Amino acid sequence: MALEEDCSWTELLPENPLFERLREEGCEQLENADLVCEIRGDLFVWSQANTALLTTNLKRLMAYPGEPQVYQTLFCTSSPLTPVLQLLPDGGASHVALRCRQSLGVMRLVRQRGQFGEFGGGQKTVNCKVTSVASDLFCIHRHSLTLVQVAWHPTQPGSLCLLTSDDTLRVYGLADPSVPLLLLPLSDSPPASCTLEDTVVAFSVWPDSVFFLRDTGDVYRTSLGGIAGGRASSPPLPMHPSAEDNYGSDACSLLVLPTSPRVLVIANSNGVIYHCIYIQEEKEEEGLGPTPSSGKLYVVEGVELEDVSAAEENQTRISLVADPVNPQRYFVVHASGVYLISLPWLTDVETCIAAGTERETTAIIILLC
């Protein structure tokens, strides 16, 4: 049956039996956007009650809107022992990372050939292999170590970057998920002396550098190349124009956009987001000539998401997700909704700065509330 012009998947999806099942289990999955993701036409939702991924194919939904809708249940060969907090699909659409508070599992998605590429030949239930990452680390430090953030490495397929509560960044590969490929302490102080007011809360890798954010609002940059057991002890990046409050003391999320010039997005837990241009400078060193410095940040603007700042849940996590299609856009995921942020001024930002002309206005679109 052909899809009618006035019909869209947003109208058809609520009637999918996948959501009927979730409503029967409870509303937790439907309220937590971190437990929902889309990979090349497949929608995934984590079911805490069944410790499984529920998935439905949006392409099939669009192609046959009049036919009964179906979904598949992907069970884990090794289920997480604690609630899953976030789903993180990789860029190749072959794995989904399952982030828990003190563990990390990676589910392998084996897709079958066919018009819609369903899993397991279209069976209702499919078993998927799950690989535990850094399991020994969290077992040994189960009383003190938590997982703060996880991200897929942008240039090393099959590798994940883990930020833990001891202010350390580790990179693991799925080929040997028990031994870190890279170990990078992000603090000069030993873990026991780190204060709650000066901890690393987020990081973003692009492509061979890592930017990390402390809750004080300070941003640091260090190179990932050739580091093994060293320390990232560089000073914070200067921010211009300067602000007495350092643009807030409740920073919580960081995202580096793959644009030129490079843009850093810094989110505060109160719903204020700053867009900063990263400027790489050269400095003169005696006997060496000009060498690259850590750079500085030019704060272009601050935007406020009113629904986030007014929400009672404004202390909950704010996730920043890059748009895989348009580098000048990104998504904000929060308990109050999902937002699309567009930065059209990036197209001619250098011209605007040089000429002192006005730039285009940042666009904020509420996708879900």
Write up what this structure looks like.
The structure is a single chain. The chain contains seven helices and 27 strands. The protein has 369 residues and is mainly β. The strands form seven sheets. Strands 1-2-3-4-8 form a five-stranded mixed sheet. A five-stranded mixed sheet has the order 17-23-20-19-18. Strands 5-6-7-9 form a four-stranded antiparallel sheet, with no helix packed on it. The two termini are 32 Å apart.
Give a concise summary:
This protein has 369 residues and is mainly β. It is built from seven helices and 27 strands. It has helices at 9-12, 17-25, 28-31, 58-63, 135-140, 306-310, 349-355, and strands at residues 36-39, 42-47, 52-57, 72-76, 86-89, 95-99, 104-108, 125-128, 130-132, 147-152, 159-164, 168-173, 182-185, 200-205, 209-214, 219-223, 239-240, 251-257, 263-268, 272-279, 282-285, 289-292, 296-304, 319-322, 329-334, 337-342, 363-368.
Question: What structural class should be given to the helix and strand makeup?
Answer: mainly beta
Low-confidence spans: pLDDT under 50, at least 5 residues? 1-6, 226-230
Q: Into which percent range does the helicity of residues fall?
A: 10-25%
Total beta-strand segments? 27
Rounded radius of gyration (Å): 22 Å
**Strands side by side in the biggest sheet:** 1-2-3-4-8
Quote the beta fraction: 35-45%
* Cα-to-Cα separation, first versus last residue: 32 Å
What's the shape?
A: globular
Mean of residue pLDDT values: 82
Main pleated sheet = 5 strands, mixed
Total DSSP helices: 7
